[in-house]
């Protein structure tokens, strides 16, 4: 009887012992994703007295919070669009190389590393290069080509955008390269046989096929920048112009006290935005996968 119930739970199939291999994964997801998400969701609706309240959610309408959200959206959108366009062009250039060539393997491997190179280490690299005491800033200053001493690096709408592009472009190359390589030479040959030019091929064949993958990659880059924290925290020390920094300020500031649950409400706001964007990404990726051989 117990065996029959177990088979019904797995859709009529006998469970395999190989399923035990995913237990650590589900344990990891539970501890580091499910439980923190539940803490954020419930904490956003709990007041100082432990009772339920909507005051934390209403606090999201404060000018400081809306300004931080708007800045985060602008930063994420700009770096996502710029990273997607540059990364897509690079992905096409890489796809034209020899499949087993050293240059192609080097670029894809390097992109895999750079896409994950963020946080304090990346911020330090830019500080050592572009800050007021950076070697490139001193070099330009000595040549009379620099007037602000590298202060632009600490602005969220200048230096931080440049730093984010450092990992956004390689990430787009990795995500978009399989879609570009999925274009079959027969499709171009068929277009040329029918009298179509290169422009017509890209406008009516390659463009529509690659568009879902391009938009999906753009959404992934938006989410990547929207949720980044360590790099921004290392570079932007004045105020909390971005939503992740504002959340960190409510949890660690020695000046702003008793705002922990407001921070959880802001985190819930980020979860909603990321969930909407990732849902659109999954739908686009499912549509684009019809053209890819996996």
UniProtKB/TrEMBL annotation:
Signal peptide: none
Pfam families: BPD_transp_1
InterPro entries per the UniProt record, alphabetical: MetI-like, MetI-like_sf
A GO-annotated cellular component: plasma membrane
Gene Ontology biological process terms in this record: transmembrane transport
Topology of this chain in the membrane: Multi-pass membrane protein
Primary residence: membrane
Compartments, record wording: Cell membrane
Ranges that cross the membrane: 21-48, 68-94, 106-130, 161-180, 209-236, 265-284
Assigned keywords, A-Z: Cell membrane, Membrane, Transmembrane, Transmembrane helix, Transport
Domain ABC transmembrane type-1 span(s) in chain numbering: 69-283
Family recorded in the similarity comment: Belongs to the binding-protein-dependent transport system permease family. CysTW subfamily.
Official protein name in the record: Putative spermidine/putrescine transport system permease protein
């Amino acid at each position: 009887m117990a065996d029959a119930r177990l088979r019904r739970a797995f859709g009529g199939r006998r469970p395999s012992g190989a399923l035990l291999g995913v237990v650590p994964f589900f344990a990891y997801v539970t501890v580091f994703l499910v439980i923190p998400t539940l803490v954020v969701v419930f904490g956003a609706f709990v007041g100082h007295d432990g009772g339920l309240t909507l005051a934390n959610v209403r606090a999201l309408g404060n000018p400081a919070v809306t300004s931080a959200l708007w800045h985060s959206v602008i930063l994420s959108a700009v770096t996502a669009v710029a990273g997607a366009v540059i990364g897509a062009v690079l992905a096409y250039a890489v796809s034209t190389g020899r499949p087993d060539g050293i240059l192609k393997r080097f670029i894809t491997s390097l992109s895999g590393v750079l896409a994950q190179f963020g946080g304090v280490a990346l911020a330090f690299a830019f500080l050592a290069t572009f800050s007021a005491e950076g070697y490139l800033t001193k070099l330009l200053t000595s040549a009379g080509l620099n007037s602000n001493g590298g202060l632009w690096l600490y602005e969220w709408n200048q230096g931080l955008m440049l730093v984010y592009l450092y990992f956004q472009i390689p990430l787009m190359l990795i995500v978009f390269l399989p879609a570009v390589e999925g274009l079959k030479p027969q499709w171009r040959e068929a277009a040329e046989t029918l009298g179509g030019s290169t422009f017509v091929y890209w406008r009516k064949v390659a463009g529509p096929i690659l568009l879902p993958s391009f938009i999906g990659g753009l959404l992934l880059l938006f989410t990547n920048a929207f949720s980044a924290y360590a790099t921004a925290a290392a570079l932007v020390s004045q105020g909390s112009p971005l939503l992740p920094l504002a959340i960190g300020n409510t949890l660690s500031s020695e000046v702003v006290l008793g705002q922990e649950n407001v921070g959880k409400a802001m985190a819930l706001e980020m979860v909603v935005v990321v969930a909407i964007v990732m849902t659109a990404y999954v739908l686009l990726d499912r549509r684009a996968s019809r053209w890819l051989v996996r």
